[in-house]
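Ticket 4471: requesting a sanity check on a complex prediction with fe (ii) ion. Repro inputs:
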Amino acid sequence: MLYKLIKNFSLKGNNFNYKITFLIFKFFTTIYSSLTCFIENIFFKQNPSNKNFKQKGIFKQKLKSNINEILLHSDEYHLNEYMIVHKLKKSELEQLINLVFNKKMRNKITKITGFKYSLDYFRIYENKHIKVSDYKNPTKRVPHFDKAFSRNMLKIFIPLNIEINSGPLKVLHKSVKARPKRYETNIKECSYLLGNGEFLYGMTPNICWHHEGNPLKGKTAKQIMIQLNPSKHWCFREDLHVRQTSPENKFPSFYSLFFRTTKII
Ligand SMILES: [Fe+2]
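Returned structure tokens:
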């Protein structure tokens, strides 16, 4: 049954099986998102979230020091024609986590969102230009929200070389409920994640529609993405470094019962 569901789901297209499977998947993930949110609010919520974050579902902070300086030795891994993953060694990754999530930043994030977190997935990726003729390619970037996660799940993005022509990630604020028709649609209720290693953005991808753009020819969009799930204390998964090129883990609140973490001090 589960195998059949996954097989159908992988056959993207307009066929009837896919649509039915998608509806079943959406139904279960909606229950999962609401239920985990409810449980996390009871057990992990430290304080009410800040008013601005509650309204928009996104926040921006300036980092203490520029992140690009410690990313000089990453290894390139070509995930597909349009994306490079920049892998860090275990020690470099832990150095970066301690630098970004220093005590001051951890307190700021908790004050904004109301939670302490476990860092459950980490990737540095670089989007390349997609030719218009290749738009039917399965790697195409479409507006979406992250389904198989808690409504409280937070994603941290640190843009490393991104300006408006690099196809930045566009995040629609929480108040926008309709699926955006086009990336270029200019509305006030959205944020473009821009920066050169000096800013950190936090957003709730289960609630906010988001859409990666297409960098102009000759440009790329390189950024750090970290998945954070509410936790008793600030920590990170011990196997973060070995999963940098693997797909992002889904249903993390459930799987968190089975993996080891290291406390961030
Ligand atoms: Fe996403």
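Notes from triage: The first strand starts at residue 58 and ends at 62. Leaving this open until the requester confirms.
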